[in-house]
TrEMBL record, chains A, B:
Keywords, sorted A to Z: Polyamine biosynthesis, Spermidine biosynthesis, Transferase
Entry's family note: Belongs to the spermidine/spermine synthase family.
PANTHER family: SPERMIDINE SYNTHASE (PTHR11558:SF11), SPERMIDINE/SPERMINE SYNTHASE (PTHR11558)
Name of the gene encoding the protein in the UniProt record: speE
Name of this protein: Polyamine aminopropyltransferase
InterPro entries in the record: PABS (IPR030374), PABS_CS (IPR030373), SAM-dependent_MTases_sf (IPR029063), Spermi_synthase (IPR001045), Spermidine_synt_N (IPR035246), Spermidine_synt_N_sf (IPR037163)
Residues at which spermidine binds: 94, 163-166
Species this protein is from: Aminivibrio pyruvatiphilus
Amino acid sequence: METRPKRFNELWLTEEQSPDMKLSLRVSEVLLNVKSPYQDILLVETGEYGRMMILDGAIQITERDEFCYSEMMAHVALSSHPDPRRVLIVGGGDGGVLREVLRHKSVEKATLIDIDEEVINASKRFLPTISAALEDPRADVKPMDAMVYIKAAKEEFDVAIVDSTDPVEFAAGLFESPFYRDIHNALKKDGMVVAQTESPFTDRNVVRDAFREMSSVFPVVRMYWGAMPTYPSGMWTYTVGSKNADPSAPLRPAPEGTRYYTSDIHRASFVLPPFVIDLLK
Amino acid sequence: METRPKRFNELWLTEEQSPDMKLSLRVSEVLLNVKSPYQDILLVETGEYGRMMILDGAIQITERDEFCYSEMMAHVALSSHPDPRRVLIVGGGDGGVLREVLRHKSVEKATLIDIDEEVINASKRFLPTISAALEDPRADVKPMDAMVYIKAAKEEFDVAIVDSTDPVEFAAGLFESPFYRDIHNALKKDGMVVAQTESPFTDRNVVRDAFREMSSVFPVVRMYWGAMPTYPSGMWTYTVGSKNADPSAPLRPAPEGTRYYTSDIHRASFVLPPFVIDLLK
C-alpha cells in the first residue's frame, strides 16, 4: 500500500498592524469566530500570549499582556482623582479595565457601556481572568451606544475611561471634541477622563489629534505612556483630561495585586521622550 | 493574442521573534544579502521602519527606531559616570551606539570592537545616518573578537557598553560572569558597564540570568528599560553594573540632539513594573 508523506499544518493569526507591518502568532485553537452586528469577533488560543480576542482584525486583548494596558487605563486617573466613587467605562466589554477599576475600594459603582453585547458574552465565556469583574455587584454593564448614553448623563461620574477600538467606523467619534464635550458634561466637578490614544510610531496623527481635541475641552490635559507588547510598536500612549486635579500626581498607593502599575510607574509614565513631545506641538 | 492576468508580488521580511511569534515588514528593496564568516547579513529597505539590518535572521537595527536603543545604551552610563573619557563598545558595528557616545564632549576616545568587519562595512555603505560616527577621529574601530581584546585590557576604560546580538552562538559568552569579570578588570576605578539584556516578555531567562551574572561581579547592579519597537515585545531591558557611582542618577544634562533620552527619562527608566522586579528575585 502506498503511504502518503505526513503533512504538517500550522495555524497562524496574522494582524496587519499597518499596510507595511504584520504581527503573526501561532494559534493552537480557534475558540470563536462570529460576526456581530458591529464587528467580526475572533477568539484564539496562542502559544505566545495565551487566549486573545481580535475585533475586525485588530488584536484587542490577550491573557498574558493585558495587565499592562488594563492597569494603565484604570489606575492613573483613579489614583490621582481626589475621591473616585462613580466610574464610567466606554467600551472595554472584555472586562479587563473594569477589573482594575474595581480594585479601588472607593469605587461604589462602575458603569460599563459597550455597544457590542457579543464581545461581553465572548469574554465571559472564554476569558475568565479578564471578564470576572463583569459579574461584580458594583459593576453596571449596559450593552448600548456610549455616545447616546453619555449625551443624557449630567455630572454623574468622577472618572470616565474610554477603552475604545481604533478610531475607525463606529469608534471614530470617540476621539473627537464633541464626544469629549459630552464626557465633560457627564463628569462631576473634579472629573477626569482617560483615553487610549495609540502608538507614537504607527499612529502619529491619532496621538496628535486626540491630544488636541481633548485640549479644546479640558483645562488640564496630559499624556502618559507604557509598554503594550501586542499593540503596534509596543509603545502605547494614554491621554488624560482633568477639570482640576493634576493627573500626574498619585494621591494614594497602588491598589493590591497590580503587576505593571505602581505609584512610581505612575509618575514615570508622564515623562515623555522628546520625539513624543514634538508630536504634540 | 491571449493576455495573462497581471500578477502582483509582495516582498516581506519575516522575523521569527519566538517559535510562536513573527514580525513581518514589507520590503521595497533588498540592498545586501551576504554570508560573513560569522553570520548572515541582510540589509533591506522597509516601508515601516526605513532601512534595516538583519543578522542571522534577527532584526538588529532600523533607521527609524534605532534612536530608542542607541540613546538608552549610551547616555545612561555616560551621564551618571563622574568623568567618562575612555569608552569601550563591544559589538555595535553598525555605529549607532558609537554615534551617541560621541555626543558626550568629555569622551576622548571610543574603542569599538566588533567581531564582524562585514557588519561595519555594510553599515558604512547603506546606513549613513547610523554609521557616520565610525569615521570620527575619536573613534577607534577594531574588527576582532571582543572577548580576546578585553582579556588583555587592564583599567583602561571608564564605561563599557555591550551592544551584543542575542545570547546565542559566538555572543552567548557576552552574557556570562567570566566576561563581566574581564570587563570589570578592563574598567578604571569608577567604571560602569551597560548591556542590552532582552525582553521581560519573550526572554525572561536572559533578563534574570544577565542580572544575576553581572551581580556576581559588580557591587552595584541596576536594571532599566525602554521602548524598542522592532525588538520582540517592544519592551527592552538594559542592565548596568557599576564599581561605585549610582547609575540611576544623571550628573549632567542630556547631550544635544537626543530624541528619546532626557535626564527625566533616565530617572524614569529605572522604575520597573512589579512583574519585572519579580523576574529578578
